Amino acid sequence: MAVLKCNFCGGELEVNADMSVGICKYCDSVNTIPKELDRKGHLYNRAVFHRQNNDFDKAEGVYEDILKEDNADAEAHWGLVLSKFGIEYVLDPKTQERIPTCHRTQQEPVLSDPDYLAAVQYADSEAKRVFEKEAGRIQEIQRRILEISQKEPPYDIFICYKESDERGNRTEDSLLAQELYYELIKKGYKVFFARKTLENKLGAEYEPIIYAALSSSKVMIVLGTRPEHFNSVWVRNEWSRFRKMSRDNHKALIPAYRGMSPYELPVELSSLQSQDMSKLGFMQDLIDGIERWMRSGKQGENIQKEIPVIGSASSSLERLLQNAQTYIKLENYSSAEETYTMVTKKYPEDFRGWWGLIVCQTRNFSEIIQERATLNMWFKYVKKLADSNEFSELEEKYIELYL
CATH number for the domain including 199? Predict the structure, then answer.
């Protein structure tokens, strides 16, 4: 018998690794049981632990490590879906059922997510039914959130900060955020500031408003007075989501700190030009920079000194693709595959990343691969994402070798 943490409540279950699904004795939820549980069980349990604590970025990292070893692992693909959509199962006091709540709404439907498609492709019939049922529930929640969020007025600026400390007391960060909030609304900006914006809302109503604010805001200011505040679960959840949204929209992310060194910022923020809130004139300099950014709305405007811009998705994407193509010319397929994998993670909507993986695996179509399940899956993604003219050319090349 192996020990597995329940995907729904986190309880520890003793399961038979030969089983495909099992019922949790704590919450009666139907769990899918990963393959090779004896060998990889600690990784699955670690990922579930992170998800139970709403630390979805860390959970994603664990599932991605599992998939590096075996890309046909259905449970790891499904775990990535739960992490990307920020799914937390909350106990309904009336029915005693675990109900999924979504903390990371996506524009793309869950049923077309590449990891969901991979999960149902590689799962056996019993596990597939579980995945399909849960995905249906998640999609309905996602639909309702998007419907509500569309009724929210657009925001200009999102202030991201830690509201309460471990004892439930208000943080210094909250006071600084409030001061900034009032200065910005004086200038006429529509500002998301959780303490005010969510003041009279129920917890269940937070996500549609947060999603609307994240997607519509052109500027986010993430501020903190301690390194751990930038890395706290809900703060990180907000700024990491904003960064991902910026790949398709030109947005500016401004880290602002006080009482700490800029070198203590999370690595993802350290490459951006940060602002020291303790410096004389900080507030006015920040507001001046934001005003210039809002007026211009143009990437070419030379205001990067005031506002650190997350570069346009197209330029970052094209640079990655250019690097990958250079590696292929050098016949360095391992480096090319790493780069194309990065493209599929950051820009899953671009077919060239999936096609590039096929090129790498076949050594630029010079080798015939006997086990083609993964190649066929990638080719299906290419078919879904490429336009008809682009796909017809690629299809001829693929069919010539494999079909």
Answer: 3.40.50.10140
Domain that holds residue 170: 157-296
Q: Is residue 333 part of a domain?
A: yes
What string of H, E and C letters represents the secondary structure of the chain? Answer: CEEEECCCCCCEEEECCCCCEEECCCCCCEEECCCCHHHHHHHHHHHHHHHHCCCHHHHHHHHHHHHHHCCCCHHHHHHHHHHHCCEEEEECCCCCCEEEEECCCCCCCHHHCHHHHHHHHHCCHHHHHHHHHHHHHHHHHHHHHHHHHCCCCCCCEEEECCCECCCCCECHHHHHHHHHHHHHHHCCCCEEEHHHHCCCCCHHHHHHHHHHHHHHCCEEEEEECCHHHHCCHHHHHHHHHHHHHCCCCCCEEEEEECCCCHHHCCHHHHCCCCEECCCCCHHHHHHHHHHHHHHHCCCCCCCCCCCCECCCHHHHHHHHHHHHHHHHHCCCHHHHHHHHHHHHHHCCCCHHHHHHHHHHHCCCCCCCCCCCHHHHHHHHHHHHHCCHHHHHHHHHHHHHHHC
Domain end marker among 296, 327, 352? 296
Q: Could you read off the pLDDT of 39-69 as tens digits, one per residue?
A: 888 999 999 999 999 999 999 999 999 998 8
Q: What is the pLDDT of residues 69-120, one digit of tens each?
A: 899 999 999 999 999 999 999 988 888 889 999 999 988 899 999 999 999 9
Please give the tally of structural domains in the chain. 3
